[in-house]
Amino acid sequence: MKINMNNAVGPQVRSAKPKTPKLLPILGGVSLVGGLQAATQFFAYTFQYHASLGANLGHVYAPWSILNWSAKWYSQYPDEIMRAGSIGMVTATVGLLGVAVAKVVTSNSSKANEYLHGSARWAEKKDIQAAGLLPRERNVLEIVTGKDAPTATGVYVGGWQDKDGNFFYLRHSGPEHVLTYAPTRSGKGVGLVVPTLLSWGASSVITDLKGELWALTAGWRQKHAKNKVLRFEPASSSGGVWWNPLDEIRVGTEAEVGDVQNLATLIVDPDGKGLDSHWQKTAFALLVGVILHALYKARNEGGTATLPSVDAMLADPNRDIGELWMEMTTYGHVDGQNHHAIGSAARDMMDRPEEEAGSVLSTAKSYLALYRDPVVARNVSRSDFRIKDLMHSDDPVSLYIVTQPNDKARLRPLVRVMVNMIVRLLADKMDFENGRPVAHYKHRLLMMLDEFPSLGKLEIMQESLAFVAGYGIKCYLICQDINQLRSRETGYGH
To answer: Most buried residue, 7, 142, 387, 395, by CB count within 10 Å?
Structure first.
């Protein structure tokens, strides 16, 4: 019994059970005809093949003759016709029983099932082509017209060697995301990441530990892929781009409070474990109000709001903190009117007991301690680019987010903020024409997230992987062990 597989990757999908052999229905029909023939011949024998029975060939009559004779002579010879009918029914029944037995036997054959212990097998070239990891062969029209064979495109996911020893790179060009996990020093970087970045022509975001990927691929992407290459290294003072997260807040729109709440969540939850404690929740509410206040004050007075300036508001040694709460409740943020979310946050602090208010304030300030580093503060003091540039500028953009190993832990909150904003701002709206989604971006975006679990649990990634492909975003997630992703402490659980 041969079972055909109709999918190239993932669990094997088998075809339906074999259908009943075509011979069995034929044998069933033969049994019925045989019953008619037996009845016909018995009736003819009873009357000694009388000439009135009609044409015959060596005393053999047509099977359906018994039906004609029954219609003509049943009233005259009922007993003879009934006996002939009985003979025919017995003959047909025996034949049908034989067919039924044959069907049971063939359905329960004692032949060994070759897939008893599983159907997994090594993929063949046609399976790999069906999975879209190898280009198809040239068709007849392409051969006749002299067209070249289709070339492989997309991200690198592996290699395959055929029986003749020919080696082929496996590349995935579809909208689906890719997850790669392999232990350290196993060649993920040189075998998959670097070749992908040296061939992907559209925009990209790369998390780059130690800056190796920048050194190996940025030159090619700038010269040959015509990308604008950016290196954001928040703990370095040597030549990288600057980026202010608060510049991405859509101040003055209905989205402003949601944008600030998303940002504040990431600030007070640097590891992605959730806002579980009372102090985290109250610090979150305070930061939402203070960040909004800083944004509106800078907008109205011609300054620039930054996370270091927010920290400076909360930790100003020359000003009593109560003056800040009073300013937040009386300042004219919008058309001379106080902003409800800002005033409410300040009023909450004013209404708290002194000890509790002090604990909330110290908790909020602790989450902003990173921005007291003058190097980090300078690198987030203005924006040399905007998140929207990644997919909407005239030329594709490659953004390298570089962190050195000794700074990885302390910079994690800022990197999480950037990755979160990239996904939220680039996958926030879909246009439709004639009931169909329309791409409103100029360039696809590859998110090459090396050492992905080191970012901690990012709810936005967990939620958005199912739909961001529709916005032109392809994620390539890399980790050392699948258990890193399944970890309940630092990953996404089972």
So the answer is: 387
